[in-house]
Amino acid sequence: MLSQLWRIAAPCLACGLLFAARASAHDPFEITTDAHLDAGGLNVHTTLSLDSAVRLCLPKAAPARRLVRSDFEGFRRELERCARDYYAVTSGGQSLSVRSLSLSLSPEDDLEVRAVHDRPVHGPLTFDALRLKELPEAGGIVLTVTGQRSFLGQKLLRRGDARLELPITPEGEAIGAPSWPPSSSPSASPAASSTPLPAAVPRAAEHWQGWPFLLALFVSVAAFAALRRRR
Length: 231
Description:
231 residues; 6-stranded mixed β-sheet; 4-stranded antiparallel β-sheet; 28% strand; 10 strands; 34% helix; alpha+beta
């Protein structure tokens, strides 16, 4: 019974381990940015490896070796300066100032950059990745932009195509997005309606990492195998 169960569970367990390992840290020059527009402003969260950040922002000062966590403080000031103009963000042709900026390291030693810009009120909303010229041809940034109740757009930015331009309403939503609250859905809740599917899927995936997910997967496989044996 145990050997049969292990033969069934092992492939699933291996897949879970691979998924968790790939989701835990960013590969070199693999950069993701999530920009979310709410009532307070435009929140731009960028995640990339510390090594990539230093080589993008300080190509001449970056050491030949791979950077590690202990190198972060030595480059913090230069990275903060670079992060302020990493993106040129405009609304209706007007630059959106950075109101606040924070840098930190994740447990996987990825650099987490969080910037809050003034709230855009005119379209188009544009992002220009000014530092992409320092990336190799294979590198890029996956930029995803959401409003409070609509998905605005997503694009893979590369050296030769580093701009994303999106039409938005004065409320900061996609053109044609329904207004809130809905006129004929009293039972609908903001939580159920405000998160679009393209944004909800990555957020859910963030919780499917590590041993809790693998343990749940193993228990599910074990229960399925036991049920089949009874039949």
